[in-house]
């Protein structure tokens, strides 16, 4: 059941400032961990200050973070689901420096620690995706992919390649799957497809594209159902009604990780197979016939 805090924030989300939206997005995606975090820790994750976190909480009716924690504990019939006990350790290591030659043993140890911490963050991001797969939004996305007259896949910026691969895997399972690259300039293929029940899946992560934001707005204004796959910090993710799936992508590397997106799309493919059931058999067999016709594989 959605808690009172989540309902309040979601109802007021469109009115929030960009900074408040970043804070809200992080807190809504991490309700099960707020009991262990300070305002400064939340601020670090949202890219703002502890003062801004306090101001945001007061704007939605809470005196401070402790006030919210008391409400969340009182409304919960289960203990905090702690999935990552390394957060504070990571923050400490991130600011910790060792004296010595960068090219010597100390530098090597720092590199090893950085890799170990990055690995833990990547694993936590994958665990987060699996928790998403147990939720109602993921189930609705899978249902809509299986039932739609047509599915349009949009990968914005650095997510183009992975979204295109998802489109290829999906078209093996069902007909009328299209990768919408936006080359027309106005996305008429997906926003004016004239299918009775189309469904779109939009993927974008930071730095967020103005085009992705405009697409979501245009889809919402036209009553076009769509899923938005993005990261936890997207400030406009809740501006319009969508099937929202937010993944963790910051693993401490130069670029954000695409591994959580790969994992999410793979789980969606499996969920769609389960929903299509025996109806998929005929299509898969015809696909195999075509592969043999064109002598597609070496063996």
From TrEMBL:
Swiss-Prot/TrEMBL GO biological process terms: carbohydrate derivative metabolic process
Domain of life according to the entry: Bacteria
PROSITE patterns: HTH_RPIR
GO MF assignments: carbohydrate derivative binding; DNA binding; DNA-binding transcription factor activity
InterPro entries with a match to the protein in the record: Homeodomain-like_sf, HTH_RpiR, RpiR-like, SIS_dom_sf, WH-like_DNA-bd_sf
Ranges where the HTH rpiR-type domain occurs: 3-79
Transmembrane intervals: none
Name listed for the protein in its UniProt record: RpiR family transcriptional regulator
Originating organism: Burkholderia cenocepacia
């Amino acid at each position: 059941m959605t808690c009172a805090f989540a309902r309040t924030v979601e109802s007021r989300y469109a009115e929030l400032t960009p900074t408040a939206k970043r804070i809200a997005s992080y807190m809504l995606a991490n309700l099960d961990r707020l009991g262990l975090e300070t305002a400064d820790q939340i601020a670090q994750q949202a890219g703002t200050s502890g003062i801004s976190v306090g101001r945001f909480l007061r704007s939605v009716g809470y005196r401070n973070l402790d006030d919210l924690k008391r409400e969340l504990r009182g409304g919960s019939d289960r203990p905090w689901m702690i999935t990552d006990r390394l957060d504070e350790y990571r923050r400490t290591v991130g600011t910790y420096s060792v004296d010595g030659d960068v090219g010597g043993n100390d530098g090597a140890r720092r590199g090893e620690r950085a890799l170990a911490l990055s690995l833990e963050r990547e694993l936590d991001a994958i665990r987060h995706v699996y928790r998403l797969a147990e939720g109602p939004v993921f189930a609705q996305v899978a249902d809509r992919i299986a039932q739609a007259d047509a599915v349009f896949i949009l990968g914005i910026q650095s997510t183009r390649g992975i979204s295109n691969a998802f489109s290829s895997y999906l078209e093996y399972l069902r007909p009328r799957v299209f990768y919408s690259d936006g080359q027309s300039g106005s996305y008429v293929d997906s926003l004016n497809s004239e299918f009775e029940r189309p469904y779109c899946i939009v993927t974008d992560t930071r730095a967020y594209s103005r085009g992705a934001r405009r697409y979501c707005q245009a889809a919402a204004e036209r009553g076009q159902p769509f899923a938005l796959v993005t990261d936890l910090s997207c400030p406009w993710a809740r501006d319009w009604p969508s099937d929202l799936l937010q993944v963790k992508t910051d693993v401490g590397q130069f670029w954000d990780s695409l591994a959580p997106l790969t994992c999410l799309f793979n789980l969606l493919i499996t969920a769609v197979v389960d929903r299509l059931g025996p109806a998929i058999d005929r299509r898969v067999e015809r696909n195999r016939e075509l592969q043999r016709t064109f002598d597609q594989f070496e063996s």
